[in-house]
Amino acid sequence: MARINVNPNRMELLKLRRRTAIAKRGHKLLKDKLDELMKQFMGLIRESGSLRDGVEKKLAEAYTVFSIARSEVTTEEVEEALAVPSATLDLKVKDERIMGVKVPHFEIEFSGGYDCYGLATTPMAFDAALQHYRELLPMLIALAEIENNIRLLAIEIEKTRRRVNALEYVLIPSLEETVTYITMKLDEMERSYRTQLMKIKSMQDEEVRARG
Amino acid sequence: MSGTGAAGINPVKAGASPALREGKVMKLPPFLSIDRKRIKPFSDVTRYGYAVGRIRVLETKMLNTQRLERLVEADFESALNILDEIPVGDYLAGATLALEVDEGLTAYLRDVYASMEEALPRGSLIMEFFLCRYDFHNLKVLLKAAMEEKEPQGLLEGLGMVGLDALRRGVENPAAMPSPYREAMEEAVQRTSPQELDTLVEKHYLAYRLFLAGREDSPFIIDFARASIDLANLKLVIRARLLSKEREFLDAMIVRGGFVPAVNLLDLFGDPPEMMARKLEANIYYSRLMEIAESEDQVVRLTDFDRKGEDQLMDMVRGMKRISVGVEPIFAYLRARENEVLIVRMILIAKLHNIPPDAIDRSLRKLYID
Q1: CA of A153, closest CA in chain B: separation in Å?
Q2: What ipTM did this prediction achieve?
Q3: Which of the residues A113, B196, B258, B360 has an alpha carbon 20 to 30 A from that of A105?
Q4: Which of B246, B247, B287 is nearest to B263 (CA)?
Q5: The domain that contains A147 carries what CATH number?
Q6: CB contact under 8 A, A83 and B148
Q7: Residue of B106, B302, B348 lying closest to A127 (CB–CB)
């Protein structure tokens, strides 16, 4: 692991020790955040799975009914019947937060009936098909919201994991190595200083002995 | 030859058989009970002799039960091959999309109308009975486009009696609009809801068909037009309830002229389903239709209602086939061709959308030829 290029002195050692402690605390916090994000992520995955099954089933149903209704009239008659829609959909977007991640939340409100066509000669299966599509639309929006949340959480999880890994496998080890290095260096310096002192002391003692 | 027999009894006045004359038979069996007022003078009906002769040949080349069964079971490619055995197949060669199927079938129907128009005697209104549908459709498209101030989408060109240009001119200048489209337009443009606009035009369409049937002076066709009005009205009543419409909406939209009086239909509004069926008990068929409309499965009830309703009309049309000469066999043939186009479209589009054969079979209409 690469050591940080610093002067091996006590000041740096203290600074690095402080940084190591902060890095470790940050690592723990990020690890906890990652665990919670994963928990939320898995919950959303499960929710989206069941919602997707429901949407696919409903979509197949709506598609079948609409195909039957559509086959009873020509393309031109379908175009005419649905040319001027009378229903409106009001879609409101709000911001919500999941573990600090900003995610959009959609609220929908229908107004007006979906039946914008003549009731005397159009196939009655139109009503059933459009009713299915009307029920399907909020489900599709909910699914889109959940799948978007999953995507945003996945990005956040990836970012957090990269940070955790960077702390765990790069920063903390290099800080620890640098701290060890400085400690060793300081010890070495201290030993060298002590040896020098001992040498000076022994030289002084020899000089005194020679005089005396 | 005198109408009086040897014993001095007029069999026409007195009854067909001695048993009947002696009062032993109270009522004629159904196959003898012909309303003679309904039979036209022979000289009138012979005008249609050539056209009837022609359709008797063409009827042999229509979709029949065996072909239909094969079509339902086949995949899309094989269905096109089966259709090659009848004239409609020529118009569908190489079709791979729903739009191409539609185009082919519209072209086929256009040729059916054109060939029949050639064979019909002058002054016959029967073609207008079928073709006015397309004019009313185009009128709806043009009125909706004018409402939205957009380009019209979904116009059917080359079909109809008055033509698209006349309708376009009429929408821009109401004085130039031919009747009955002018009356329909004058009433419809006052509405702001696209649904009311559509339903009002449809109302005028059904009423105009009844008028044309009256002009053609065929009791069978008049009955058909009246039954169509009844079915449209029943649809209106059911849908108005399902879609929570006001009674006023129903009152304005119900078409007058059917067998079931409008007052009776309005009387059904707001009733629970079983009460609606009971009120229509006098007419067994409509009562049964109402029961279908209240079945548990919404999809089944809605598709079944249309299917059973059209089957009822087809039963009437099949009855007309037995008339040897006159406008009725022509009417039956044209209606049968429209029904054939509808069945072919339903099968092919269902095949394109991978709908299983049993679901297709459930929604198919009765055939004209067994």
Answers
A1: 37
A2: 0.81
A3: A113
A4: B247
A5: 1.10.287.3240
A6: yes
A7: B302
